[in-house]
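Following up on my earlier thread - several people asked me to post the actual chain instead of describing it. Fair enough. Here it is, all 200 residues.
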Amino acid sequence: MRYLALGDSYTIGEALPVEDSWPMQWAHALRANGMAVSDPGIIAKTGWTTDELSEAIDEAESSGTIRPPYDLVSLLIGVNNQYRGRSSENYREEFSALLQRAIAYAGNKTSNVFVVSIPDWGITEFGQKSGRDVSQIAYELDVYNQINRDVSKLSSVHWVDISKVTREVGADPKFYAEDGLHPSRALYALWVKELLKIKI
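Reply from S.P.:
Thanks for posting it. Predicted structure:
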C-alpha cells in the first residue's frame, strides 16, 4: 500500500529524526497490524501555509515525485496560516482545494484520505513565551479545525482529532522536542493512537 503524506512541520516531524514523525510511526503501526504499507512519500516543509503546500505539490507533480494513485493520503495543514494571521475564509478556500487534490491522489477513494486536525501551539512552552494571546490562538485554531472538519465531512473523508489529546498533555516537556514547540516522538505516538481508531 502506497502512502502519501501532505503537510508542514508537523508532518515531517521538525526537530526529530524522520523515523519519529507521526506518518512514519503510523506506517510502522499499520505494518505491525498486518497491513503492507510502505514508508510515506512526504511533501511537507516547516513553515508552509496552504498556498505554499499547493505550490510544492505542483512542483512535485511536474517532477514526477508524486505518482498517483495512492492507497493512503494524509493532510495536515493550516497552523502557519493561523500564525501569519490569515483569514478563516482564505483557509477554507485553499484547504478545500488541497483536500480535493488529496482525494484525486487516492484514486477518488475518499475512505483512503485522512485529514488530521491542527494542534494548539499556544499551549506549548514556545507559545506561552511568544507574547501572543494564547486564548486567541486557541480560538482561531478552533475555527480552523471546525472548517477542516466540516469540509472533510462534506467530502466523506476521515477526520482525525489530535487537538484534544495534545491539549490534554499541555506543555509537559516529555511531549515536545527541544525547541519547546514541535511534538516529540511520545506525542506523535498519541496522535497515531487516534489514527488507529479508524479501520482501514
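Residues 134-154 form the longest helix (21 residues). That should answer part of your original question.
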